[in-house]
Amino acid sequence: MATWVITGANRGLGLEFTKQLLDEGHTVVAGVREPQSMPFNHETMTVIQLDVSSTESVQNFAKELRLICDSIDVLVNNAGRMDGRWQSIEDVDPELSLDVLNVNTIGPLRVSQALWPLLQGSNLTKIANISSLMGSIDDCMSGKSYAYRTSKTGLNMITKILAVEGQGENITVTSYHPGWAKTDMGGERAPVPAHDSVQGLIALIKQQVDDRTGRFFEYTGVELQW
Ligand SMILES: NC(=O)c1ccc[n+]([C@@H]2O[C@H](COP(=O)([O-])OP(=O)(O)OC[C@H]3O[C@@H](n4cnc5c(N)ncnc54)[C@H](OP(=O)(O)O)[C@@H]3O)[C@@H](O)[C@H]2O)c1
Questions:
Q1: What is the structure's pLDDT at 213?
Q2: pLDDT of amino acid 85
Q3: Ligand 1 interacting residues, C-beta cut-off 6 A
Q4: Number of H helices, E strands in the chain
């Protein structure tokens, strides 16, 4: 059984990851902004405060994590925020856009940087970045959502850069699109149940060996264009 770190574990896809991994018998470290918002306790789950937009919080998270384990197997950079979807040029709020980029792009980089020493070692370890098809430049047909789209495009580039850095360190790094999934972010009309999205993502992350690093996949396993 493996040790997985899940960011944004208290609701949505992060909570679904946590439940399915615990059911499989894995150890989960749940990174959440408000630890009391974690809806349950479990003997193989540790909840640690984490705000991915704060360097201090991420460093404290890494410190707490090192107190309970010497290494981890998988980091799932799942925490993310929307930008008030479908904003066109006249609606863009530059300050809010900076926060979206901070959470969705620099957040996963901060956490990966802080946990990198726990991923290094002789065993193959993995970073799974939960991106979005909305970050695909090839797929940008309907426009709008400047900040969210850009934040996920940036995350995809970070995936690629980290994947290069991870070569020779036995660390694979891959981007995933969870589908339009039914969560607070995805909304009620979303066609993909959170359970199905995460079941697909977990299966893919388990297959995330060297030939899959630096690539971008949908939860179904279909490879996506950057
Ligand atoms: N649902 C979809 O259709 C869809 C599609 C494509 C991509 N995604 C991506 O999938 C990931 C999960 O989305 P979701 O649908 O589960 O969203 P969600 O239901 O809105 O949940 C977002 C999670 O991220 C956490 N979070 C937000 N800002 C954070 C911060 N600064 N530090 C730590 N945690 C933070 C939230 O914590 P709080 O409870 O504290 O706010 C919450 O746990 C996101 O990266 C999202 O962009 C989702």
A1: 98
A2: 67
A3: 7-8, 10-14, 33-34, 37, 50-53, 78-81, 103, 130, 132, 177-178, 180-181, 183-186, 190
A4: 6, 7
- 17 is a domain residue: yes
User: Could you state, in chain order, the average pLDDT of each consecutive group of 10 residues for the chain (226 residues)?
Assistant: 98 98 98 98 98 98 97 98 85 94 98 98 96 97 93 98 96 98 97 98 97 98 98
Please answer whether residues 18 and 9 qualify as being in contact, where contact means their C-beta atoms are separated by less than 8 angstroms.
yes
How many Å lie between the centroid of ligand 1 and the Cα of residue 122? 32
Find the 217 Cα to ligand 1 centroid distance in Å.
18
Q: Which atom of ligand 1 is closest in space to residue 134's alpha carbon? A: 6
CA distance 196 to 123: 29
Q: pTM for this structure?
A: 0.98
Q: Which of 20, 33, 48, 82 to mutate to test the pocket of ligand 1 (most atoms within 8 A of CB)?
A: 33
Q: What is the CATH number of the domain that holds 43?
A: 3.40.50.720
> What's the Cα-to-Cα distance from 145 to each of 8, 66, 75, 184, rounded to whole Å?
22, 38, 27, 17
CA–centroid distance, 197 to ligand 1, in Å, is 14
Q: Are the C-beta atoms of residues 143 and 87 closer than 8 Å to each other?
A: no
pLDDT, position 161:
98
Q: Could you tell me if residue 147 is inside a domain?
A: yes
Q: Which atom of ligand 1 is nearest to the CA of 182?
A: 1
Count of domains forming the chain: 1
Domain of residue 20 covers 3-218
- Asked if residue 148 lies in contact with residue 98, where contact means CB atoms within 8 angstroms, the answer is no
